[in-house]
Write a structure and sequence with these properties.
Layout (H helix, E strand, L loop, with lengths): L1 H24 L7 H7 L2 H4 L1 H15 L8 H28 L2 E2 L1 H22 L1 H5 L2 H27 L23 H17 L4 E2 L7 H6 L16 H7 L18 H12 L16 H18 L9 H7 L4 E5 L7 E5 L7 H5 L8 E5 L10 H4 L7 E3 L7 H4 L10 E3 L7 H8 L6 E3 L7 H10 L4 E3 L15
Parallel strand pairs: 4-5, 5-6, 6-7, 7-8, 8-9
Antiparallel strand pairs: 1-2, 3-4
């Protein structure tokens, strides 16, 4: 067994040397395909060494009589060292293979390497540290801090800016004064909503940042993001209009997709020369960008100023039902309408939906994307009298479930991307409905049937995918 531990330690410290080499010379390295594939395993296995490391630290806190046998602890520490080093190396390979820039990436890279090295030092020099209690405690505290901070920047890279603190932040809608609205202020909210997870804040995938005018004009690894006056050769437009199945399509297929109006607004902005500081009212009244931007701003203003007559929910109920995986927020300041969003499949259950009954009068927006929602769950959702927006993307909902939503007379926006609904089920649901927008990306409904639905229900804007269903998007001209 000692021989086994010795081999593990030797491999770990050899890996440390390789990790440091990658850290300082990554700019000169071209990875073979096999190592590129290996790097993509980093997000898959990164939790394993963290759990082992925390288990080692918990064992260190146990009294001597309660500790596992020393041979077990030695094995645990050895595996922890090795897995931490392998995970850090895979992370560096992923960093080299993917062109992701930004402060969050740099911080995560350096902190991840530091965490791996300190973990190895903590486990490898365990006997030494045990004899020096102050140093042992400082090392343990440093490890915990490194784990938290490194995880924060990792979550920022994968889920967007302020992911961990998002539930604590207020999400109030501001009233828009179109007389003072600049061109950049008209398009930035779309970029932030649709592209922000990857290109705004401290994350710059593909070397592209959309934080401000200078960043977006600089472009990224693939060249110019926008070419003022030329939407045809602008990478942003090209990526937006690719089929959803294309790996270069942006935003990524599992993220919320832009609407027809939003894409048209971005295209008209680029064709207008991509102005930034110019006020919208300074553009000619017949300018397509000014008209699209003003229309979009009026929609946002009406949403923010809508008058809700129902009473506000009990603050105690909201606090009791809110947690990290079921976020309940007011739609805007001094408005009784509530928005509810669910996160984490493992933390979802039908009971979690039933528990919202005390708030059923106030819920106007419900986000259930990627949750294991079934047709049976929709019966409870159908009892929300003021529900205006429902997101069921990539759930198990079918035509049978849509019939459970017949009583949702206030529903204006329904997202069914990645579900198993059919054209027949959609047609039945839209009868006698005032749904304004319907999202059917990545569904089994054929192109022609979607086009027929659009003709039959002309008052409903059907969003069904760029480049997949062109008959549904006659107004997109680049």
């Amino acid at each position: 067994m000692k021989r086994f531990f010795s081999v593990i330690h030797i491999l770990t410290w050899a890996g440390a040397g390789f990790l440091i080499f990658l850290l300082f010379f990554h700019g000169r390295i071209s990875l073979p395909l096999l190592l590129q594939l290996a790097g993509r395993l980093h997000p898959v296995g990164l939790h394993f060494p963290l759990v082992l490391l925390l288990l080692v630290m918990v064992c260190d806190l146990l009294p001597a009589a309660a500790k596992p046998p020393e041979i077990f602890l030695q094995g645990l520490r050895s595996i922890t060292m090795f897995s931490a080093m392998v995970t850090a190396i895979l992370g560096m390979l992923l960093y080299i293979e993917q062109s992701v820039a930004g402060d969050a990436v740099q911080y995560h890279k350096w902190l991840g390497v530091a965490l791996a090295l300190l973990s190895c030092a903590y486990c490898g020099a365990h006997a030494y540290l045990q004899e020096r209690i102050p140093l042992f405690r400082v090392s343990a505290a440093a490890l915990l801090i490194l784990i938290i901070i490194t995880a924060h920047f990792g979550a920022t890279i994968t889920h967007g800016e302020n992911f961990l603190t998002g539930p604590l932040q207020k999400n109030e809608i501001a009233i828009i004064d179109t007389n003072k609205l600049t061109a950049w202020e008209a398009v930035y909210p779309i970029l932030k909503t649709r592209c922000g997870d990857c290109h705004i804040g401290s994350v710059q995938k593909g070397g592209l940042s959309m934080n401000d005018s200078a960043a977006i004009m600089k472009g990224g690894k693939e060249g110019n993001c926008i070419v003022p006056g030329d939407s045809l050769h602008s990478q942003m437009v090209h990526r937006l209009l690719l089929p959803l199945s294309d790996k270069k399509h942006m935003p990524e297929a599992d993220k919320p997709q832009p609407t027809l109006a939003e894409i048209s607004l971005l295209i008209s902005w680029i064709k207008a020369g991509a102005p930034f500081s110019k006020l919208l009212i300074q553009l000619p009244e017949n300018n397509p960008f000014r008209q699209a931007a003003m229309a979009n701003s009026r929609v946002n203003t009406l949403s923010a100023s809508r008058n809700y007559t129902f009473a506000a929910a009990d603050a105690g109920d909201i606090k009791k039902l809110s947690d990290n995986y079921r976020v309940i927020q007011s739609l805007a300041k001094d408005i009784p309408a509530l928005s509810v969003s669910f996160f984490g499949k493992a933390n979802f259950s039908s009971q979690r939906l039933t528990e919202l009954q005390p708030l059923q009068e106030q819920i106007v927006s419900l986000q259930l994307a990627k949750m294991p929602v079934t047709n049976t769950d929709l019966a409870g959702i159908g009892k929300l009298p003021h529900l205006e927006k429902l997101n069921l993307n990539y759930t198990q909902v079918t035509d049978e479930g849509l019939s459970q939503l017949a009583s949702l007379t206030a529903l204006e926006s329904l997202s069914l991307t990645g579900t198993g609904v059919t054209a027949k089920g959609i047609a039945g649901f839209l009868q006698q409905r005032n749904v304004k927008e319907l999202f059917l990306w990545d569904t089994p409904i054929p192109t022609q049937e979607i086009a027929n639905l659009q003709k039959q229900f002309s008052k409903t804007v059907i969003e069904a995918g760029h480049g997949i269903n062109p008959p549904v998007r006659p107004n997109i001209i680049i």
